[in-house]
Amino acid sequence: MHILFVCTGNTCRSPMAEGLTRELAKQEGKAVETISAGLFAAYGALPTEEAVKAVASIVDISEHRSRPLTMELVNAADLIIGMTKEHKSVLLRQFPFLESKIKTLAEWGGSEGEVADPFGQSQEVYDACATQIQDLVTKGLSAVDGE
Fold first, then answer.
1. CA Rg, the chain, in Å?
2. 7 among known catalytic residues
3. What's the predicted TM-score (pTM) here?
C-alpha cells in the first residue's frame, strides 16, 4: 500500500506522519510505502528541528526535504491523507475523481478532529502533535493487511 500524507508546508505534520507510519508499519511487518507533500510547499526545505526531535525516539526524519503535491504523487498513492478537514477539502476540489482515496488522518485512525499545525510553537506542542499522529497512525495501520 502506498500512502501519501499531505499538509500545508511539508515541514512538520506530514513528514512526522510519513516517518512514523513507515517505521510502525515496518515494525508490524506491513507492506506500506509512505511519502509526503505539501499543498503550498517549496522544494527542499528541511523539517523543523522541533518535528525532528518530536519523533526522534521512533524514527529519524532529519533527511526529509519538502516537496509540493504533484499529480505523479497523487497517481502513485493508494491512500491520500490530509492532516485537517481543510486539506481534505482542497484535495477533493483538485481531485474529485479520487474521493474514495482521500481521508483525514483522524478519519483513517477512526477518530474525529484534526491535527493542528504546530509550526512556530513550542517543543511541547510538537511533542503533543507527534503523539496524536502516532496514535492515529497506529489505529489506521490496524486495518492494513500484513505483507
1. 14
2. yes
3. 0.97
